Amino acid sequence: MNSEEEFYDAETGLESDDSCEVSFKDALVFDSKQVTDGNATHENGVWERRKTLPAEMISRNNFSVWSILKKCIGMELSKIAMPVVFNEPLSFLQRISEYMEHTHLIHKACSLSDSIDRMQVVAAFAVSAVASQWERTGKPFNPLLGETYELIREDEGYRLISEQVSHHPPVSAFHAQSLKQEFEFHGTIYPKLKFWGKSVEAEPKGTMTLELLKHKEAYTWTNPMCCVHNIILGKLWIEQYGTVEIVNHSTGDKCVLNFKPCGMFGKELHKVEGHIQDKSKKKRRVIYGKWTECMYSVDPKVYEANKKSDKKTAGDSKKLKPEHSCEGEEADEMPEVQETVTVIPGSALLWRITPRPAHSAQMYNFTSFAMTLNELEPGMERLLAPTDCRLRPDIRAMENGDTDAASAEKERLEEKQRASRRERSKDEEEWSTRWFQLGTNPHTGAEDWLYTGGYFDRNYTDCPNIY
C-alpha cells in the first residue's frame, strides 16, 4: 500500500568546508557560553547523556531516490513515499527542538539592558536555529497526527512541548518556556514545497515568536527558504536563502538578515548579512557571518569602510583560477567554499557553532545535542505521554540499526493512522488536538497554533493511542 508520508521535512545535508576555524583577531567576544561536560542531575543522582547512537548510520549506497521519483512525475510532492533507509532516527518534532541547541543566546539576550544589544543576540539565535541542518542528509520521520515530543533541559533552564496538530496539510506546533519565567519561545511550522526536477525548494511557512518576559518584549520572524539539491543525481547538499525580518514589537527595532543564495560562482554560499535599525530606521549595527559557522556584529561605518577597501583590493588583483557555476548539467555541483568568515576589526562575536563530535559522519551527521534527543533517560518512560516520539517503534528500530523492523513498523503505524482517519470520517468526527489550539498570534495578528498549557501536569488520560 502506498504511504501518505509527507516529503515536506526532507531536510537534507550539504557539503561544506570541514573547518569551523575563523580568525578571531580584533574580535570582541559577545558569545559567553560556558561549555559543560554534558552531565545532568536527576533525583536519583547524576546521569550522563549519551555521546553516540546505539548503531551507526545505515548505508544508502544501494538505494536510489530516482527509482522512486521517476514513478511520481506529476504527483503532489506530499504524496511521495520514501523508504525508511532515507530517514534519520528522529521525528520532525525532535528536529524542531534543535532550535533550542543554542538557548544560551536567549539567556544572554535576557541579561542585556540595551534593546539593540538584545536584538543582536536574538538575530544570532535566529541564525543558529538552522545551523544543525548542515550536512544532515537524512530526512526526519514524518510525525503522526497527535504525536508529541517533550524536552526538559534543567541544565539549560527550559522545557519544550511540541505536537503534530494537522496531518493534511502537515502542521507542527511547539512551545518552549524558561524554568525561571525569563522567556517563552513558540511557533508553528507548515512548509510549502516546490519540486524543480533536480531540487526541492521548501518555504518554511509559520512564525517564530520569542518573548523576553523581563523586558516585556516580543520578537517575531520566519525562517529562510531551504533548497535541497541533487534529489535525483549527485551528492545531496542544502542552501538557505531569502530575507529574514526580525521585528521587536515593543520597541520598533528591526533586524533584516539576507541569507545569500549560492550564486553563479558559489562565492556567497552559506553567507548571511544584514543590519539592525531602530524605530526611526537608522542603521545601528551590521550583522555578518555564515549560518554554518558564526555570526558577528560591527558598527555600520566600520563595515562600509571595510567594504570599500575590499572592493579596491579586489579590483587590483587578478583571478588565479576559473570559477565554477552552481548549475551543473547533470547535478548541481556544490562549489567549494572559498574561505571562512573574514573578521572585520572591531567586530563582536555573537555566536559560533558548536563543533560536532568526531564520529558525527557515521551518526547521520548529528550534533552532540541531536545525539541525545531520542534517548530514554532512566525512569522517563513512565512519565512520558504515550504519544511521545521516543516511544515510536519505527524510530527506535532504526536507531538500533534494524532497517527491516523500522520499515515494517513505519508501514504499520501509517496504516493505523489511515484506519483512524477512515473511522473518524465514517462517524463524521473532527480530530481534536490535545495541547495546542488554533488562535491568533497577539503580536502579528496572524493565525497561529497556541499552547493551551497543562502538559507538564502529567495527566495523559485523554491522549490518543497512535502507536
Please report the distance between the alpha carbons of the first and last residues: 19 Å
Order of helices and strands: EEEHEHHHEEEEEEEEEEEEEEEHEHHHEE
Radius of gyration: 22 Å
Which percent range describes the beta-strand content?
A: 25-35%
Average of per-residue pLDDT values: 83
SS-based class: alpha+beta
Biggest sheet overview? 16 strands, mixed
Task: Tell me the number of helical segments per DSSP (H or I, 4 or more residues long).
Answer: 8
Low-confidence stretches: 1-44, 317-329
- Tell me the number of strands: 22
Into which percent range does the helicity of residues fall?
10-25%
Dominant shape: globular
Description:
It is a single chain. The protein is α+β, with helices and mostly antiparallel strands and 467 residues long. Helices cover 18% and strands 27% of the residues. It contains eight helices and 22 strands. The strands form four sheets. It has a 16-stranded mixed beta sheet that branches. Strand 14 (225-229) and strand 15 (237-248) form a beta hairpin. The longest helix is centred in the C-terminal third of the chain and has 24 residues, at 403-426. The protein starts with 27 loop residues before the first strand and ends in a 16-residue tail after the last strand.
Give the secondary structure arrangement, pairings included.
Layout: E1 28-29, E2 39-42, E3 45-48, H1 66-69, E4 87-91, H2 92-96, H3 104-111, H4 115-128, E5 139-141, E6 148-153, E7 158-166, E8 171-178, E9 183-189, E10 192-195, E11 200-203, E12 208-212, E13 217-221, E14 225-229, E15 237-248, E16 254-259, E17 271-277, E18 283-290, E19 294-298, H5 300-316, E20 348-352, H6 368-371, H7 393-399, H8 403-426, E21 436-440, E22 447-451
Parallel strand pairs: 1-20, 4-5
Antiparallel strand pairs: 2-3, 6-7, 7-8, 8-9, 9-12, 10-11, 11-14, 12-13, 13-15, 14-15, 15-16, 16-17, 17-18, 18-19, 19-20, 21-22
Helix pairs in contact: 3-4, 7-8
